[in-house]
Design goal:
Layout: E1 2-6, H1 11-22, E2 29-33, E3 42-45, E4 48-53, H2 55-60, E5 65-68, H3 72-84, E6 88-91, H4 107-110, E7 120-122, H5 126-142, E8 144-153, H6 160-171, H7 201-213, E9 219-226, E10 233-241, H8 247-256, E11 260-262, H9 274-277, E12 283-290, E13 297-304, H10 308-324, H11 331-334
Parallel strand pairs: 1-2, 1-5, 2-4, 5-6, 6-7, 8-9, 11-12
Antiparallel strand pairs: 3-4, 8-10, 10-13, 12-13
The structure holds adenosine-2'-5'-diphosphate (A2P).
């Protein structure tokens, strides 16, 4: 299969290459795509250097599949151009997520919605993916009514410039700033830009994407915060159910849910943390306890590697699902 990674020189693009390789995705030819700024650069894939090409050259090569992680503007303009040549696009940006005719997919949760006609498929926001992974089995059992979530998001979620800012600050170097404030020894209660209602775009993504993936009736309210952690997003989540639950049943459900690792043994100091989730594909859940202030309400703590399950791994899992279900058209075979 001919596979393009658009944004191959970026943080998520780099992890996409790694995940494609690790999971032995059937790549016959890899197209590493970036902006004109990267002309002359190469990326490593399966032990070889692959020269980076521009986006027009990639379209001309008619890939079967394109994994996009090059920002919303690039996706809005270019994903339809790839689709026009018969390519299936899996897009990690927010550009297409809320379009009524585009699917927003976490394979373990709603992979069944995919059909062969889907040409542009959206990968949800990193914070949404890990939250709906844990909520999905509980929603099925008890009916999630309302969610209050506070996030503790790592700087890799912003991109390379933010990682550089944190490293510079730790070394006492004055460099380019990805955030309007220092991030080391600080927390910034703003992820992405503010919207008219006073919430940030990241907070509203948690609301609308959870509703699109799980159930439009679920009420979600969010506070998204950037913390001086290099990689791995954490979330404190308060969930109110329609039905009464048993805490041990909840633990058992999460233990057996695909893609979830339960780490919930306070006596042994076992709970999820970014350092534990680092470079792993699972979503880690722990600190399960009843909210003692109201009935049918649970508190939990959810952590995942935002570049892997929150982005690259989820995108590659969507691609695997398409292949396994025979839903991926081979445009190169047709040409
Ligand atoms: P480049 O390295 O050439 O700028 P990150 O979010 O980690 O900063 O990565 C963004 C990725 O998206 C990079 O690979 C970047 O390429 C790529 N990118 C940005 N704009 C475009 C564009 N117009 N066309 C193709 N790739 C782009």
């Amino acid at each position: 299969m001919k596979v393009a990674v658009v944004g191959a020189t970026g943080l998520v693009g780099g992890v996409m290459l790694k995940v494609l390789e690790e999971r032995k995705f059937p790549v016959d030819e890899l197209l590493a795509v970036a902006s004109e700024r990267s002309a002359g650069k190469s990326v490593r894939f399966r032990g070889r250097d692959i020269a980076v090409i521009g986006i027009e050259a990639a379209i001309a090569a008619k890939p079967d599949l394109a994994l996009f992680s090059a920002g919303g503007v690039t996706s809005l303009e270019w994903a339809p151009r790839f689709a026009e040549v018969g390519c299936t696009v899996i897009d990690n940006s927010s550009a297409w997520r809320m379009h009524a005719d585009k699917k927003l997919v976490v394979p373990e949760v709603n992979g069944h919605v995919l059909i062969a006609e889907d040409r542009i498929i959206a990968n949800p926001n990193c914070s949404t993916i890990q939250m709906v992974m844990a909520l999905a089995p509980l929603h099925k059992a008890y009916g999630v009514q309302r969610v209050i979530v506070s996030t503790y998001q790592a700087v890799t979620g912003t991109g390379m410039k933010a990682v550089q800012q944190l490293e510079n600050e730790r070394k006492g170097i004055n460099g380019d700033m990805a955030y309007p404030f220092p991030i080391d020894r600080n927390v910034i209660p703003r992820c992405d830009v503010f919207t008219d209602n006073g919430y940030t775009k990241e907070e509203m993504k948690l609301v609308v994407e959870t509703q699109k993936i799980l159930d439009p009736a679920i009420r979600v309210t969010a506070t998204a915060v950037r913390v001086p952690v290099t990689g791995g997003h954490s979330e404190a989540v308060n969930v109110e159910f329609a039905k009464e639950f048993d805490l041990e049943d909840v633990r058992q459900m999460l233990r057996t849910a695909p893609g979830i690792v339960l780490r919930d043994d306070p006596a042994k100091d076992e709970y999820p943390m970014p350092l534990i989730a680092h470079d792993r594909d699972a979503v880690f859940v722990g600190r399960l306890r009843r909210d003692e202030t109201q009935p049918r309400t649970l508190n939990l703590w959810i952590v995942a590697d935002n570049l892997r399950k929150g982005a690259a791994t989820n995108a590659v899992q969507i691609a695997e699902l398409l292949v396994n279900k025979g839903l991926l058209r081979r445009s190169s075979a047709l040409a």
